[in-house]
C-alpha cells in the first residue's frame, strides 16, 4: 500500500518538478537560429521548439503542454537572448500546441502571438481547455495532499516540500489565460531576418508553415512529422500540401514537431505514408506496406511507432468519400516509389 502511494506521489510530483536527466537540448543551426529539442527519452511527448533572432527582436516558434519544462525554457531564453521576444508563433491548432502559449505570453507580454485563423475563431474552446487542465492539476494535488496523511512523519516532511512547490505552480498557472492571437499575418520582420507565414491544410484544424529566407529553413511542426499523426479525415488535402511543399526549391531543410531536422527530399516519407493510408484504406486487416517500411529506420521502436500511427490513421479514412479512397487504391496502389 505504501509503495503504491509513493508511486502515485512520485508521478504527481514529476508533473511539476522536471528531472535534470530530461533537460532540453539547445542546438544552434546558425547565428540566428536555435532548436530546442526534448531529451530523446521523451521526444514523443514534447514538441520541438525554435527561436529565431534578428537584429531587432526574436520569434519563438511553438509551445507544448509540459508547463514545467516550458518554465525552464522561458528562463533559458531570457538568459540567452540579447534582443526582446516580439513574436510567438503556433504552427498548428492542437490543444497541446496552444495551451503552453499562456505561459509564453505572460513571460513575454509585449510579444504578438501569431496562430492559425482557426485558433482565433475558437479561442473560447482553448480557454476552456486551459482551465480544465489546471483544474485537473488541482484535483491531483488535493488527492495527493490527502494521501500524505498516511505516511510516516519523515516521509511526510519529504513530500510536503515538493507538494508546496506544486501548489505554488498551480496557483501561478491559475492566474493565466490563453490570449487572443493576431489576425492574418504573411510576414514578420525581425531585423535583417524575415519570416514568411503561409496557411496550410495539414495536421490539424488550422496550420501554418513558417519559412526563414535567411537559411532556407521551414518550421512546420506536426505538419511535417516524418511519421504523421493523423487526427482527421482530410488526409488527401494534407498529402497534396506536402507534395507541393516538396516542390519548393527554396526550402532547404525542415523542422518537425517530433524528430530531428531533415532535408526537403526526405518529405518522401510523410508523403508516402499518407499516400499509403488512402491506398490501403479498404483493407480488412492492413499492415504497413513493405515499400513504406523500408523508408524508415529498421529498429523495433521506429517500426512499432510506424505500425501504430498507420493503424490510427486508417481509422480516420472511414469517413472519407469512397471515391477519394478508390482513386488512390486503383491508380496508385503500387506506386510508393514515385515519391522517392
Characterization of this structure:
- With 340 residues, the chain is an alpha+beta fold.
- Among the domains are: 15-123 and 178-224, Ribonuclease Z/Hydroxyacylglutathione hydrolase-like (Metallo-beta-lactamase, Chain A), CATH 3.60.15; 264-339, no CATH class.
- The chain contains twelve helices and twelve strands.
- The chain has helices at 2-16, 67-80, 95-99, 101-107, 117-121, 123-147, 153-174, 235-246, 268-279, 290-293, 300-315, 322-332, and strands spanning 25-30, 33-37, 49-53, 58-61, 85-89, 112-114, 187-189, 194-200, 207-212, 217-221, 253-256, 262-263.
- The chain has a six-stranded mixed sheet, with helices on one face. The chain has a six-stranded mixed sheet with strand order 7-8-9-10-11-12, with no helix packed on it.
- Helix 1 packs antiparallel against helix 6 and helix 9 (268-279) crosses helix 12.
- The radius of gyration is 22 Å and the shape is globular.
- 38% of the residues are buried.
- The model is unreliable at 1-14, 17-21 and 325-340 (pLDDT under 50).
Layout: helices, strands, pairs:
Blueprint: H1 2-16, E1 25-30, E2 33-37, E3 49-53, E4 58-61, H2 67-80, E5 85-89, H3 95-99, H4 101-107, E6 112-114, H5 117-121, H6 123-147, H7 153-174, E7 187-189, E8 194-200, E9 207-212, E10 217-221, H8 235-246, E11 253-256, E12 262-263, H9 268-279, H10 290-293, H11 300-315, H12 322-332
Parallel strand pairs: 4-5, 5-6, 10-11
Antiparallel strand pairs: 1-2, 2-3, 3-4, 7-8, 8-9, 9-10, 11-12
Organism: Pseudoalteromonas citrea
InterPro entries: RibonucZ/Hydroxyglut_hydro (IPR036866)
Protein name: MBL fold metallo-hydrolase
Amino acid at each position: 500500500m505504501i509503495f503504491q502511494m509513493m508511486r502515485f506521489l512520485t508521478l504527481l510530483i514529476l508533473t511539476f518538478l522536471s528531472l535534470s536527466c530530461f533537460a532540453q537540448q539547445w542546438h544552434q543551426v546558425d547565428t540566428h537560429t536555435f532548436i530546442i529539442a526534448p531529451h530523446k527519452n521523451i521526444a514523443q511527448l514534447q514538441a520541438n521548439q525554435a527561436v529565431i533572432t534578428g537584429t531587432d527582436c526574436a520569434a519563438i516558434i511553438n509551445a507544448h503542454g509540459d508547463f514545467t519544462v516550458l518554465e525552464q525554457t522561458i528562463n533559458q531564453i531570457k538568459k540567452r537572448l540579447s534582443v526582446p521576444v516580439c513574436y510567438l508563433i503556433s504552427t498548428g491548432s492542437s490543444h497541446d500546441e496552444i495551451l503552453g502559449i499562456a505561459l509564453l505570453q505572460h513571460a513575454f507580454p509585449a510579444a504578438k502571438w501569431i496562430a492559425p485563423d482557426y485558433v482565433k475563431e475558437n479561442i473560447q474552446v482553448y480557454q476552456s481547455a486551459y482551465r480544465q487542465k489546471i483544474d485537473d492539476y488541482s484535483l491531483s494535488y488535493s488527492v495527493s495532499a490527502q494521501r500524505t496523511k498516511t505516511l510516516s512523519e519523515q516521509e511526510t516532511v519529504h513530500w510536503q516540500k515538493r507538494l508546496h512547490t506544486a501548489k505554488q505552480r498551480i496557483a501561478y498557472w491559475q492566474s493565466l489565460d490563453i490570449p487572443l492571437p493576431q489576425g492574418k499575418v504573411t510576414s514578420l520582420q525581425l531585423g535583417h531576418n524575415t519570416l514568411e507565414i503561409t496557411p496550410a491544410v495539414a495536421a490539424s484544424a488550422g496550420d501554418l508553415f513558417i519559412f526563414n529566407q535567411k537559411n532556407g529553413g521551414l518550421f512546420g511542426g506536426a505538419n511535417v512529422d516524418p511519421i504523421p499523426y493523423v487526427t482527421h479525415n482530410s488526409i488527401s488535402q494534407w498529402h497534396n500540401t506536402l507534395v507541393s511543399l516538396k516542390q519548393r526549391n527554396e526550402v532547404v531543410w525542415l523542422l518537425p514537431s517530433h524528430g530531428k531536422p531533415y532535408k526537403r527530399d526526405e518529405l518522401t516519407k510523410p508523403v508516402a505514408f499518407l499516400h499509403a493510408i488512402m491506398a490501403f484504406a479498404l483493407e480488412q486487416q492492413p499492415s504497413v506496406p513493405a515499400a513504406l517500411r523500408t523508408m524508415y529506420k529498421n529498429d523495433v521502436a521506429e517500426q512499432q511507432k510506424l505500425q501504430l500511427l498507420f493503424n490510427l490513421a486508417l481509422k480516420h479514412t472511414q469517413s472519407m468519400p469512397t471515391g477519394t479512397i478508390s482513386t488512390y487504391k486503383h491508380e496508385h496502389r503500387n506506386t510508393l516509389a514515385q515519391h522517392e
